[in-house]
Amino acid sequence: MPRVPFVGRLSLRDYVALITSFALLALEVIIRTITLLLPGPIVRWFYRASRNAFNRLSSPASRHSRNRKKAVSSPIAQANDFLDICELYGYTAEEHIVQTGDGYLLGVHRLGYKRGEEDQKVNAGPGSVQKKVVYLHHGLMMNSEVWVCLTERERCLPFMLVEQGFDVWLGNNRGNKYSKKSLHTTPDKIAFWSFSMDQFAFHDIPDTIDYVLSTTKQPSLSYIGFSQGTAQAFATLSIHPMLNEKVDVFVALAPAMAPPGLAGGIVASLVKSSPEILYLAFGRRAIFGSATMWQALLYPAIFTWFIDKSLSFLFGWHTNNITAHQKMAAYPHLYSFSSVKTVVHWFQIIRHGTFQMFDDEGSSPLAVGKGSKYYKIAKFPTRNIKTPIVLVYGGSDSLVDIELMLRELPRHTVAKCIKKYEHLDLLWAHDVDELVFPHVLEALQTYAMPAGGPQKGWKAIDRGIHDRQSLGANGSSTLEGSGSDRSLRLITQDQRLRQAYDWGLDSSTPDEQLDESEGDEKVDEGPERFALSPTPKAPSLLVALQTPDRNHDHIAEATTP
């Protein structure tokens, strides 16, 4: 394709894509403006019209299937906030407010109690129940609800951790649904939205961790991040050496550091041209503020279809591992506000192929003296991280470049791949409890410091172990590296999963379990729908170690004193 003269970075096709994208954005602005001016009855009429049109085009079998699953997905989809979703499953959650060093007020949620423990004091000083603290953080343009909006309790990571005896905290980034307040400005001002991942790393994450540890009176916590939530941890641990002593293990689900790129031609053209062009398209406040408008106008099944097509266009994801009723429940909670500047920061990272801080001087191709000889953008020094790191990523995730990531992380990093998984599968896949949770529990049991500090006889596994492990779609495992002088016993991966994590489930699929539990076609079955099953068994302590045996059908298990 011939290059356009003078500004030769883009091809003619890229310019056509850019022009088309701006035309679509202009059309959306017009539609959004009209919608805001419409009275409520008109908006509801559009909703009913989209529902009727969808039902007419659907087959009777499809309508019947949706109605059967509606009793599960609808209460979750219609829940107003984090607390409402937790109440559906019988859990009592707390809300906390963290003030950052630069004046933002962040909403933080806590799940500290199993059902029936609400009258007990947890991590409240002498005489209270002592529990190990786990902190979870969401991804880009999300909030804490994405962790709990699942259609089965067994697949919900926070609920599983609570039942395993952990004190679970869930954070929120500045600007999202739970953190839209600052002591110095308001969300209608550009200054409020002038933040990127730099501010998450320098303020939001370390300030939240300090608050959680101060409140629970614990010396350390375990960090579990998803997507951008992992990038924020990589960044903050790399620039705060003392924070590494407060985080005993970092589990990165769908880790993000320097994504290789995007599948969509329009978005790829935006990245290649200049990341700052996003300011022209979306302004300098919140990005995709119209998402809530489309959710109000469209019937949930159509909204779900629209999200699926968008994910396929942007990232090449097919979301085949997430059931239809799980999408209906979770997609309404997928989006939350974030700044355009944060997305610009990611575009800078993708364009330069390095995990860097925000480039405040921009990237104009006509700037003088911007070559690497005269100008260097500060990188996050991720090799300085001392906290043990466990990466759990999908082999079909277009946003993960695992080789680049491992080169930029310390040698004690452990990497585990689930080959069939895409990005969102690490949150919502129908078998996430079988393929992801065992790795999370294993990391917590291996590295996490006991509640209240080190106990007699407790010893953390050597952080110098260098283990690159790949977990296949069928559960097989590959270990690379030198041998170990530890006493090892080989077991199969299937045995490991059964020992590490056993919820007492039968062998049927989630859809089959759902069908069996529903029986007649009821739409509203009340709170009993979300009743808890018996408390899960505690996992055995398994440690993935290097072994001289290179049999790819086995892993190594180490017994600890």
From TrEMBL:
Region (Disordered): 503-539
Any one GO molecular function term: hydrolase activity
Membrane-spanning intervals of the chain: none
GO BP term (any one): lipid catabolic process
Keyword terms of this UniProt record: Hydrolase, Lipid degradation, Lipid metabolism, Membrane, Transmembrane, Transmembrane helix
Compositionally biased intervals (Acidic residues): 512-523
Main location: membrane
UniProt keyword Membrane, yes or no: yes
GO cellular component: membrane
Localization terms from the record: Membrane
Pfam families, alphabetized: Abhydro_lipase
Domain Partial AB-hydrolase lipase positions: 84-149
The keyword Flavoprotein is annotated on this UniProt entry: no
Topology of this chain in the membrane: Single-pass membrane protein
Domain of life: Eukaryota
Protein name (Swiss-Prot/TrEMBL): Partial AB-hydrolase lipase domain-containing protein
Natural source organism: Cryoendolithus antarcticus
